[in-house]
Amino acid sequence: MDSADAVVQDRKPIKVDKVRIIKHWTKERRAKAIPRDLVIDQRGLGYLKWPDGSLRPHGHDISPEITPNGHSISPFASGRGGRGGGKKSSDKTPPSISNMDPAEGTTIGESHTFEATVTDSGGVASVTFKIQKNDSTYVNSFPAGQSFGGVWGANFHGFTNGGWKWWVEAQDRAGNVRISTTVNFSVNTGPANVPVSHDEWTAGGIIQTASGRLYFEMPDDATLSTWSGYVCSATVADDEGTAGRSLIITAAHCVYDDVNKKFARNALFIPNQAGTTGRGLDGNCGNDPMGCWIPSFGVVDVRWTDETFPDNMAWDYAFYVVPDEDAHVGTSASSDALDVAAQSLTLSFTQPSFDFTHALGYSYSEDPKFMYCADNLTNEPMYGRNWWLEICGLTGGSSGGPWVLPMDTTSGSGPIIGINSWGLVIGGYNLPGMAGSKLYGTSAECVFDAAKEAVVSSSPAQGEAGVAVTCP
Fold first, then answer.
1. Which residues contact 304 (CB under 8 A, 6 or more apart)?
2. How many domains does the chain have?
3. Residue 152's domain is classified under what CATH number?
4. pLDDT number for residue 370
5. Measured between alpha carbons, how far is residue 282 from residues 18, 28, 259, 288, 363 in Å?
6. pLDDT tens digits along 119-162
7. The domain boundary residue, chosen from 187, 218, 240
């Protein structure tokens, strides 16, 4: 049975424009859909990562920097440059040290990535991290490695409960030395949570019924003459009783093309596709647990539309609006309202604790499995505008999936604190780790509130099916 056959299986007829979208997403088109997978390289340039591993420049025309093996450029190089031989330098200014993580008063777990921004106009020669437990006279001394934008870091394991302190010693190429202030932090190893890089979610629950695969198209260039199919992940959000619609939260890069400056078209959402009785890419809405749902339009922050990735990474969150009528096709659902049929997760706009966090999504390579990673939440170290899960190995297609903290693994539920956003590449090779868009301290709540009320034309022009919201 193809997607056209699935149209007649719905409980009530849907509008012609929605039927067209269902018919559009044939098995062949779904199979050709590309994960909209954004990455940043060691130069700070944004790329779209294709399924074959190739990188396509995003918003620029600079070719990716590919190395013959993944270790010829290291995210944590030794950083031990020369000490400024030759003529004696007139430089008397030591390096500057800032953005130390962990910060004063922070509580960390058994392991943590320590980072600090160290810069010097003449070049930094070495950075050393000094770590001491409060009840000990012994000082641990470790060399740090340089990553991006002046950030130096090192990962440490084996911390024990109690009070600790640390400081940074940095030397520039002229021999000038700076010692930072001492930062106090505490360690609470808590329950033994085991980090997970990339595994199938088998606990079920609301997180599985509310999350799904998202298909859509975006233009190949500004002429809008050709469009390509993409795939992301998304989750039904608790819209606090908003009448007449349901909201699904995803990444802004799955809603609005920030290069060609147009909204996506032909969006199709399939909740709990992991529960299909067919194949994930078979084009049949009749064998998915709740069928397929057709969003009407998207809502993003205007700053996502004005800038281009990675400059707009702080606003990589968005919503699709799904009407409560004329939006469902395929397997009969318990309600015409998506948030009733699939259930929903609450959004948390408050400061989360830096604790064990689950990120989930439909990795393209694992179709149709629902995948997850889990690790202690930290701040993204290079730009400081996103959350970060250090060992996360979710692959393309998981963009837009939810970050849940805390996760109740018995009910498969919890508040969403962020959204899968982007990853890192060095010399063309993937690095572990995933950045997540922050809902706390951003305009996310403003965009959410706007999505509850926003309207667009019933027949929008190509690339205009959306609203860009101006938020404080």
1. 252, 256, 258, 312, 315, 316, 318, 468
2. 2
3. 2.60.40.10
4. 97
5. 19, 8, 31, 10, 16
6. 999 999 999 999 999 988 888 888 888 776 788 988 787 788 89
7. 187
